[in-house]
């Protein structure tokens, strides 16, 4: 199954340290739109941005 994530979901899972659930459950891929990454997370999730970027780099291969 694939998923497109919204800002709140991303922030809540990463702040809780449970982001692996996303990648385990959605085995066909997790999508984060550029606008969410570049605008929403910059404004509301600055503290998780490094982790999100790292996961994007790992899982986009």
Textual characterization of the structure:
The protein has 61 residues and is mainly α. The protein has four helices and two strands. A two-stranded parallel sheet has the order 1-2. The longest helix has 11 residues, at 34-44. It is globular, with a radius of gyration of 11 Å. The two termini are 18 Å apart. The mean pLDDT is 91.
List keywords for this structure.
4 helices, two-stranded parallel sheet, mainly alpha, 61 residues, globular
What's the SSE pattern? EHHEHH
End-to-end distance? 18 Å
Structural class: mainly alpha
Oligomer class: single chain
Q: Count all strands and give the number.
A: 2
> What share of the residues lie within helices?
55-70%
Percent of residues in beta strands: 5-15%
Summarize the structure.
The protein has helices at residues 7-15, 19-25, 34-44, 49-59; strands at 2-4, 29-31. By secondary structure, it is mainly α.
List the helices and strands and how they pair.
Elements: E1 2-4, H1 7-15, H2 19-25, E2 29-31, H3 34-44, H4 49-59
Parallel strand pairs: 1-2
């Amino acid at each position: 199954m694939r998923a497109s994530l919204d800002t709140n979901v991303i922030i809540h899972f990463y702040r809780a340290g449970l982001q692996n659930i996303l990648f385990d459950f959605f085995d066909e891929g997790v999508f984060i739109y550029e606008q969410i990454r570049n605008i929403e997370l910059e404004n509301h999730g600055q503290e998780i941005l490094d982790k999100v970027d790292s996961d994007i780099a790992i899982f986009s291969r």
